[in-house]
Design goal:
Layout: E1 4-6, E2 12-14, E3 18-19, H1 30-42, E4 47-49, H2 58-67, E5 76-81, H3 91-102, E6 109-112, H4 120-132, E7 139-142, H5 146-153, E8 164-167, H6 179-185, E9 190-193, H7 210-218, H8 223-231, E10 237-239, H9 246-254, H10 262-271
Parallel strand pairs: 3-4, 4-5, 5-6, 6-7, 7-8, 8-9, 9-10
Antiparallel strand pairs: 1-2
Helix pairs in contact: 1-2, 1-9, 2-3, 7-8
Length: 284
């Protein structure tokens, strides 16, 4: 996968990684899911995103089984801590539990899953301590809107935030009004979850949409690949689609080679216009 995203510390990560939401939860599908993750890694989707919340740790266990025996230095592992565990009382235990389930000594990125009752200053201090202890390489946040990011920036050490992970796809463009411009101005890459509009009603007929199908046909691609190409078009976004099937993982990886033209982006803008006013985050 040639297209990569620069993090603030100079680290390069693939523009398309792999999500694990809902993976690892059924025994009868775990072999197939491991095969999908493995195929994705082999095709360059070496960034894998998970969380202690996903299946109460079962997704992390699945990741651990998948990467066992692989070259750890080639992987970029991301996990997320529950808000209620993101303080001094629990975060260090939570982090160690995630590491144990994944069978690794460190996380490349550790995210606060969403805002909770623990003060941001406390969470940031704990994240910085985890870095000093070598348990994580960098930290970030998830589901933070513009006012949350501004508050984070006012906290000591808050500007060390490496990414903000939020829901983003062609039919959910609310972040383009103010959050995404703020992140670009402050050099915070976007990590886009549900870039294929997974999760129930979010699809809104996207895979049957005639404009998206027309663009896909032009590229001899699938609609899913057009959706991913749209998500990562700015060069500062990491999309993390989730799939438990090898054939879909291969499609997702190949989407990094799909580059949409200005005309095609204009077609998408007409069909799925960006908002002209503040829209609160979509959160699943």
């Amino acid at each position: 996968m040639a297209r990569q995203v620069h993090l603030a510390d100079g680290t390069l990560v693939p523009c398309i990684g792999q999500g694990t939401w809902f993976l690892g939860e059924r025994k009868d599908s775990q072999v197939r899911e491991q095969e999908a993750l493995t195929a994705g890694i082999q095709e360059g989707m070496t960034l894998i995103d998970t969380a202690e919340m996903y299946g109460s740790g079962r997704a992390e266990l699945l990741v651990g089984r998948t990467i066992k025996g692989m070259d750890r230095s080639r992987l970029f592992l991301v996990s997320k801590v529950y808000p209620h565990n993101a303080g001094r009382k629990n975060i260090f235990k939570s982090c160690m539990s995630s590491l144990e389930r994944m069978g690794t000594d460190y996380l490349d990125l550790y995210l606060l899953h969403w805002r909770g009752g623990v003060p941001l200053s406390e969470t940031v201090a704990c994240m910085e301590k985890l870095i000093k202890e070598g348990k994580i390489r960098r930290w970030g946040v998830s589901n933070f809107d513009t006012d949350d990011m501004e508050e984070l920036w006012s906290v000591p050490g808050g500007k060390n935030c490496a990414v903000n992970q939020v829901l983003y796809h062609v039919a959910s463009r609310g972040i383009e009004y103010d959050l995404l411009p703020w992140m670009r101005a402050h050099k915070v890459p976007l990590m886009a979850y549900c870039p294929l509009a997974q999760a129930g009603d979010l699809r809104r007929g996207l895979f049957e949409n005639q404009v998206l199908r027309q663009i896909a046909d032009r590229h001899k691609a699938e609609v899913s690949q057009v959706l991913l190409a749209f998500a990562v078009r700015d060069g500062n976004t990491i999309a993390i689609p989730r799939t438990g099937r090898k054939e879909h993982a291969l499609e997702n990886a190949a989407a990094a080679e799909v580059v949409l033209t200005e005309e095609e982006l204009a077609m998408i803008d007409r069909e799925f216009p960006a908002p002209a006013r503040k829209v609160h985050l979509d959160i699943v």
